[in-house]
Amino acid sequence: MITLFELSQKLLKEKSAALFCHARPDGDTIGSACALKLALKVKGVAAQVFCTDPVPEKYLFLEEANKIITEYSGNFSEFSALIAIDNAEITRLGDFAEAFIKHKNTYSIDHHSSNTRYAKINYVESRSSNAENVFALISEMGIAIDAEMANLLALGVMTDTGGFRHKNVSAQTFYDAARLISFGADMNNLYFHAFTRQSKERAKLFGKTMTDIRYFNGGRIAVASVLLKDFKNTGAKQEETEGFIDFVMGVDGVEVGACVMETDSNKFKISLRSKGVDVNAIAAVFGGGGHRLASGCKITGDYEEAVDRLVVAISKYLED
Ligand SMILES: [Mn+2]
C-alpha cells in the first residue's frame, strides 16, 4: 500500500479532483470529502464533491454540505483525479461507479478493512472513522487546519463512533478529536445537529413507536413496529426512523431487538440488533444479512404473520 507521505505528494501534483461520497451519505463520508476538498483548494488543486444520493437535511447546517453535487451529466474526464472517500466497494459510488472505473487515475481513501481495492491507488487504514485518515493526510500535506476543516473532520469522527460510544473508539480517536477541538471544532454544536435535533413529526413517531414496543420470550426479544399508517398519522419520513433500534436495545432484559418498518403495503424492512445472538444468521433465514450483532432483512406478508415468523426465527437462536 502507498504510504501517507507518498499519497500526499501524489495528490498535491494533481490539477483537479472529483471526490465521491458513498450512497446514502453519512457524516463521515460528507465530512471527510468536504474537508479534503477544502485542503486541496488551499494547495491550488481545484476540487468538487459528488454524491449519488442527496445529503440528509440534518447535515445542511454545514455550508460545504450544500455544495455537494448529486446530478452531473459530464464524464469526469476533465478532472485529473477521481477520489472515492469512505467507499468500501465500487458499488457504493452508485451512479458514479461507471465513470470511476473508466477513469485512468483513481484513488480510494477509506477506513473499512473490507475495502476491495477497486481504485488504482488505494489508501486503506483501519481507524474509527475515515475522517481520521483525511485528518492525517491533510496534516501530512503541510496544510494548516482551519475551523471549517476541523468541524467537517470532527463530524466524521463523531458520527462514525456514534458520538464516541461505539466499540471502535480508541485513545487515538479521542486524541484526534482533542486536536480537532484545538483547531476550532465545535463538538457541542456538531453533536446537537448529528444526534439530538429532530423534527416534530419524528418526535411524535418515536413516542408512539416506543410506547408500543412488543416483548416476547419474557422480554428477551423486543419488536418495535412502524407501519404505513404511523408515517401517515405523524407525517414523519421513513429515513427518520434512524436510531429507533438503538433505543430498543437499551431496554433492560432485551437481548435481540427488531425494528419492523412497513415500506410498502405488507412489505417490511427489518433491522436486527443483538447483544450476543448471531442476528446475521437470523437475517439469512429471510434472505438478508449483515454483521453478527447488527443485520437486516425483508419480509413480505401480513404484519402479524411477519412478526410471528421473525420471533420464531429469533427464538431458535436464543440460548436458555
Ligand atoms: Mn466511515
CATH class call of the largest domain: Alpha Beta
**Number of DSSP E strands:** 11
Give the distance, in angstroms, between the N- and C-terminal Cα atoms: 47 Å
Q: Can you tell me the CATH architecture of the largest domain? A: Alpha-Beta Complex
Structural class: alpha/beta
Strand order of the largest sheet: 6-7-8-9-11-10
The CATH topology of the largest domain comes to inorganic pyrophosphatase (n-terminal core)
Reported for the largest beta sheet, the result is: 6 strands, mixed
Instruction: Name the hetero compounds present.
Output: manganese (II) ion
Q: State the fourth-level CATH superfamily of the largest domain.
A: inorganic pyrophosphatase (n-terminal core)
Low-confidence stretches: none
